[in-house]
Specification:
Strands 5-4-1-6-8-7-9 form a 7-stranded mixed sheet, with helices on both faces. A two-stranded antiparallel ribbon has the order 2-3. The chain has helices spanning 30-39, 58-67, 79-89, 107-119, 144-148, 157-161, 165-169, 182-185, 197-207, 212-216, 220-226, and strands at 4-9, 24-25, 28-29, 47-52, 70-74, 94-99, 124-126, 140-143, 176-178. It has one domain (4-226): Spore Coat Polysaccharide Biosynthesis Protein SpsA, Chain A. With 235 residues, it is of the alpha/beta class. The chain contains 11 helices and 9 strands.
C-alpha cells in the first residue's frame, strides 16, 4: 500500500484576513481545529503542517512545536516546490491537500476519498474538476510521482501557488477522477471556508454554541443541517 500523508497548508500572510489560521475560536486556534478534525479519522496517517520559511510564519512553527505536530518549511511563493520537498522529506508516495482555513473539514469524505484513491490507479482523486462541493470542503489526493516529474521552470506564477492548476488544465495527460457526493453537490454554493472577518464571526458562533470538542468531532453534514441558517451562499 502506498504511503500517503495529509498536508495542511498554512501561512499567516493572507491578504484578505492576515493571521487567520492562528485566530482563536473558543480557546483553540483555527489551525488546531482543522488539525483535530483531520486526526479524528487519520490516526495512522501522518499529518504535516506545511508552511513557509518567512519570518511571519515562525509563529506557526511555534504552534507546531508546542502541540508536537510534524511540520515542513519551504518557499513562500513556490508552493508546488515546497510540496515536492515536503513529500521527499517524509518519503510520501501520495498526499492529501488541505488548506488551514477549513474549520468544518469533512473527515468522513476525506477517508472515503483516501480509500478510493488507494483502491484504484488514479494520479489524482478530487472533488474540484469540476467543483462538486461547498467552498471549504475541497479535497484533493495525488500521487507524488506526477509532481516530481514536472518541469518547474515551465510553470507560471499561478501554477506554483495553486498546485493543482497545471494538472487540471492539462487533465488529458493525467488520470483524474472527480469524486462526487450527492449531499454536497446539491449544496455546492455554500461557503464553509474562513476567508473574512464575517466568516470568522460565523465560525465563532458555531463553535461557541456547544462544547468545543463536541463540534470538532461532529460530522460536517450534521453541522450543515444544524446550523444551516448561518451558512450563506457564494454569489
Amino acid at each position: 500500500m502506498a504511503k500517503i500523508g495529509i498536508i495542511i497548508y498554512a501561512r499567516t500572510s493572507s491578504k484578505r484576513f492576515p493571521e487567520k489560521v492562528l485566530k482563536i475560536i473558543n480557546k483553540r486556534t483555527l489551525l488546531e481545529i482543522v488539525y483535530l478534525r483531520i486526526k479524528k479519522k487519520s490516526k495512522k496517517i501522518p499529518v504535516i503542517i506545511n508552511t513557509s520559511k518567512s519570518k511571519s510564519d515562525d509563529q506557526i512553527i511555534d504552534f507546531c512545536k508546542k502541540k508536537k505536530i510534524e511540520y515542513f518549511r519551504g518557499s513562500l511563493a513556490n508552493v508546488i516546490e515546497r510540496t515536492i520537498e515536503c513529500c521527499k522529506n517524509f518519503n510520501l508516495e501520495g498526499f492529501v491537500r488541505v488548506n488551514a482555513d477549513r474549520p468544518f473539514w469533512d473527515f468522513n469524505l476525506m477517508q472515503s476519498m483516501i480509500n478510493f484513491y488507494l483502491s484504484n490507479n488514479y494520479d489524482i482523486v478530487t472533488n474540484q474538476l469540476p467543483r462538486s462541493c461547498p467552498k471549504g470542503l475541497a479535497c484533493e489526493i495525488a500521487s507524488t510521482r506526477i509532481f516530481k516529474n514536472l518541469d518547474l521552470k515551465k510553470l507560471n506564477k499561478n501554477d506554483k501557488e495553486h498546485i493543482f492548476n497545471y494538472f487540471y488544465r492539462n487533465n488529458n495527460n493525467y488520470k483524474i477522477f472527480n469524486y462526487k457526493d450527492n449531499f454536497y453537490s446539491k449544496r455546492k454554493k455554500l461557503n464553509l471556508s474562513l476567508d473574512t472577518k464575517e466568516d470568522y464571526s460565523i465560525v465563532k458562533k458555531i463553535y461557541g454554541s456547544n462544547k468545543l470538542d463536541k463540534i470538532i468531532n461532529l460530522k460536517t453534514k450534521k453541522i450543515i443541517k444544524k446550523f444551516d441558517k448561518l451558512f450563506h451562499e457564494i454569489k
